[in-house]
Specification:
mainly alpha
């Protein structure tokens, strides 16, 4: 996750708004989808209901949202296969950016 945050943490708004490689979705939307997926994995690991992660107006907040949900997932102490699934989702998102 930290590698992903370092990759996008310095981006300005035009870069977030650009269309992700090989798709028709903005990079900001793609990263927000990842944030939501990680939050869902955390909720499942904790036995809690899934909640929507707010899509903030400013994409510059996305790296912080990613940090928070990643820390929450690690704190939940999920099984290794859940962590592997999260890592695969991060890798796929990075590749699409």
């Amino acid at each position: 996750m930290e590698l992903m945050v370092r990759q996008v943490g310095h981006w300005q708004q035009p870069r977030w708004s650009a269309v992700a490689a090989g798709g028709n979705v903005a990079r900001g939307d793609l990263v927000h989808r990842l944030v939501q997926e990680i939050a869902n994995l955390t909720a499942d690991a904790e036995g809690q209901p899934r909640r929507d992660v707010p899509r903030l107006d400013n994409d510059l907040a996305l790296p912080d949202q990613l940090r928070v949900v990643a820390a929450d997932l690690l704190a939940a102490g999920p099984p290794a296969e859940v962590l592997a699934r999260a890592a695969a989702q991060v890798a796929a998102t990075r590749a699409a950016l």
